[in-house]
Amino acid sequence: MPSKLIDVREYTVKAHKRTIHTRTFNFVCKQCEKMTSRETYGPRPLYCETCRPPQAPKKSAAAPPKKAKPRAKVYQSGVDFQK
Question: Region Disordered: which residues (predicted)?
Answer without folding.
Answer: 54-83
